[in-house]
Design a protein that fits this description.
The strands form two sheets. The chain has a five-stranded mixed β-sheet with strand order 2-1-3-10-4, with helices on both faces. Strands 7-6-8-5-9 form a five-stranded mixed β-sheet. The chain has about 260 residues and is α/β, with parallel strands linked by helices. Helices cover about 45% and strands about 25% of the residues. It is elongated and about 60 Å long. The termini are far apart. The longest helix has 30 residues. α3 runs parallel beside α4 and α8 packs across α9.
Length: about 260
Amino acid sequence: MKKILGIVAAGALSLTLVTGCSSSDTSTTSTVPASVTGNITVFAAASLKGTFTELGKEFESENPGSTVTFSFAGSSDLVAQIIAGAPADVFASADAANMKKATDAGVVEGTPSDFASNTLTIVVPPGNPKGITSFADLAQEGTHLVICAPQVPCGAATKKVEDATGQTLEPVSEESSVTDVLNKVTSGQADAGIVYVTDAKSAGDKVETVEFPEAVTVVNLYQIAVMKDSKNASTAAKFVDLVKGSKGLAVLSDAGFAAP
């Protein structure tokens, strides 16, 4: 009986060793840390310029040898460039609609992640010369209004507010990014503009903010993803992790972004 148990035990030990070697080999391979170095290019919505620039510096500090290069513009322009072959490693969109264009085109690796949300507000020059107090006031005759073009996330959100309120706006200009709208107001070229609350906050005392209740009904969801053709996917994924992590969320929250 002891002999039989001895044979069984020996067999079990052999099996354990074989299994252990196999597991060890696999473990050794999987636990080798991915390289986080080299350059990555991040295509990000214009409204993320301040926060992502700060996070880029944080990333480079945490990962010596890495460099983050940004391209900020309207999300619709960025996704068109990516689909046309622009060498992006990460895409951060100001809405889900433009990220869907990227996923539908097959240029996204995996599933995009939600990481922030944003709502609209009205900005006017200091002193509010036109006396604008509501969304309806933007349609007043003689008011030089600037908004985002409909294909840009902030423009699409503005259109939804128009549809919800039944108020048709007649802007003097439709811009390709929310920062362009803000610049037209701060430079005195417009009496009012519709931007994100984060852009209004970043402008400080260069503008006054006019909140309107209809804005809460339209929330833009920000999404981020690594691109399928990234030449530095491990570093790109690490940057995405930073944005989604506690440090990224703290920077975004300080800038006025809300949780997704």
